[in-house]
Structure formats: C-alpha cells, structure tokens
TrEMBL record:
Transmembrane segments: none annotated. Residues 222-250 are annotated as: Disordered. The keyword Repeat applies. It comes from Endocarpon pusillum. Residues 222-234 have a biased composition (Basic and acidic residues). It comes from the Eukaryota. This is Rhodanese domain-containing protein. It holds the Pfam family Rhodanese. Residues 82-172, 210-328 form the Rhodanese domain.
Length: 337
C-alpha cells in the first residue's frame, strides 16, 4: 500500500472535521498537554449537567502488562485515584474481539458504542492520561485510537504522575455512571494504520534494490528486540523485524517523572538513531500500546511528515505468531539485522 495514495484520505477527513464540528471548545497549544493546561481547561467546563456545550473530558487509559507482578488492573487504578470527571477507556474491552491478537482496533460500530457508554460527545475535547505508578505508558495508544476514528480534538496528558505531584485535584471510589450520549459511527482513518500483509511485504523487500526506504521503530526493550529476553506472553518468540531499529519507549521519558522529554531532546534521540525525517516511519511494539508512545514523541518533536508516520496495529505479537521459522522475517542480534 503506497503512502502517497493514502495521504488524501486523511486530508479529506480533516477538512470534513473542520466543517462539521463547532470550534467552541478549549484550545490546547499542542498534542501533549501539561497538568496546568488541563486543570485550567477543566475549570472552564459548564457547571450544568444538562448543558450541551462542548466539554474538556479527561479519559483514563490505565492499563498494566499481563505479567504485572502486583496483578494490578486499569479499572482498580481508576477507582483508587483519578482526575475528577474522568471516564475510563478499557483497552482490553474496546478492541476487535474476533481477533486472536490483543488490542487490535475495534470496528467503527464498537468504537461508537464505547464512546456512547462513556457519555462522550463528538465535540468534546478529550485529554487522555494513564497511571501515577507507570507514568506515560498506555495513554498515547488510546489517544491514537481516538484519532484513528476521527475524533476532532484529542490530546494526551504529560502526565498523571506530575498531576499528582503538583497537588492537583483527584478523587477515588466508585465513579459516577455518565449519562449515555449519541455518538455517530465514525469512519476509519486507514492511512494511520499498517496491517500484517503490508508489513510482510516490507520485511521481504528490506535491503532489495529499489525498495522504498521505510524506517521501523520498535518500542520494546533492547533485550526483546535482540532476542535475548523473553516476551511477556508465553510461547512467543522474541527478536525483531528485518531492518527495524530498537527504540525503547522508556528512552523517550524522563527517568523520574516518566513524562515525555522536551521536543529538542526527543529530536536529538531520533537523530542519534540515524533516522531520516524525510522518509516514512512505522512504529511497532508488543501489542500496539507503547508504539504509540514513540508515535506521540515523533509528533511532539515534529520529526517526520505527519502523513508518513504510521503504527503497526498487530505489532510483534501478531508478527511472531504469523511468520514462519523459515521465512527469515524474525531476526536476532546473533543472526544480525
């Protein structure tokens, strides 16, 4: 699937959004939002529950790895401490339930139903955040998902740990059940997503004369990329795709706050990996969650063309399960890139 052929799709969608959504909501300066900016936006929300004015709504995307040693879950974390008025987006439920792979994008109908259940309206400004414990981790995946389905005003909080450290308001206990909304079934922005068939073609074409130079960034740990550490899912091979570059998402975060690093620092990291901002970039990880952290960092650093940055939804879990041992499409550090 050629990148150039897909670019008009996103342009037409963006043009449509400019016409069918009122510009009355709070405007943030960038995709990544500071705690102070979100706090100020929440103060501007209409006080009346019956108001139809656009709102700024925090979306909690708390999620933990399946091998979490403490057995923590996103919903428990949401109940224990959350931003007031926040809604919970369950990554493990808002997905394609017919797929054998975790976290694959849901159907357009399933997405719309989830938004209605959360009481989200199309003209709401959404700011996604994750957990105080992990810092920036799963929120970018939900932010990316919301953008894939064309929600007009989406941002990611950088981050909830800083929100808590700055003493901003939180609440706990059973959350209030929101009044269901009417959310139109959206279109699917195909030019933001890469699927297995295309990735397989890219893998086979790697290194061939005349092949398009596509940069693949892998957000998993260096050990998983090298094939020296096991995957968190039993029975799954570790290693990497041909031509991919190890880009652990943790390297893009502040070591203490786990917030995304400043734009200039992010750009320096990408350049140190010998990446070319003029060439297409695909991000991947284990199941498509932390790849979105890299995607958010690319966006924050304005690195690469927006239409040339995409995410491989199935990521390593699908790749390692579907490519054969004899294909040569699973590389390790010992075998060479």
């Amino acid at each position: 699937m050629a990148f150039a052929a897909l670019r008009p799709t996103r342009l037409r969608a963006a043009q449509a959004l400019r016409h069918d959504v009122p510009r009355r909501y709070f405007t943030f300066s960038s995709y990544m939002v500071t705690p102070k900016e979100l706090n100020e936006a929440l103060k501007k929300n209409a006080r009346s529950k019956i108001s139809t004015a656009p709102r700024t709504i925090p979306i909690c995307a708390a999620w933990f790895m399946p091998n979490d040693l403490q057995g923590r879950t996103g919903i428990e974390c949401f109940k224990n401490k959350r931003i007031p008025m926040a809604r919970f987006f369950d990554i493990d439920q808002v997905k394609d339930h017919d797929s054998p792979y975790p976290h694959m994008l849901p159907t357009c109908e399933t997405f719309a139903q989830a938004m209605e259940k959360m009481g989200i309206r199309r003209d709401d400004a959404l700011v996604v955040y994750d957990t105080e414990e992990l810092g920036l981790f799963s929120a970018p995946r939900v932010g990316w998902t919301l953008r894939v389905y064309g929600h007009p005003n989406v941002h990611v909080l950088n981050n909830f740990r800083l929100w808590c450290q700055e003493g901003l308001s939180t609440e706990s206990g059973e959350p209030e059940i929101p009044e269901p909304s009417k959310y139109p079934v959206p279109s699917y922005q195909t030019d933001m997503v890469v699927k297995f068939a295309e990735m397989k073609t890219i893998g086979y074409d790697y290194g061939k004369e005349g092949a398009e130079e596509i940069q693949i960034l892998d957000a998993r740990s260096k050990g998983r990329w090298e094939g020296t550490e096991p995957e968190p899912r039993p029975g799954l091979r570790s290693g990497h795709m041909p031509g991919s570059t190890s880009m652990p998402f943790q390297d893009l975060l502040h070591p203490e706050t786990k917030a995304l690093l400043p734009s200039k620092q992010l750009k320096q990291i990408f350049l140190s990996k010998q990446l070319d901002p003029t060439k297409p970039i695909i991000v991947s990880c284990g199941t498509g969650v932390t790849a979105a952290v890299v995607e958010a960092a690319l966006q924050q650093a304005s690195f690469g063309k927006p239409d040339d940055r995409r995410l491989y939804d199935g990521s390593w879990t699908e790749w390692a399960a579907r490519v054969s041992e004899s294909s040569g499409l699973v590389r390790t550090a010992k075998a060479g890139q």
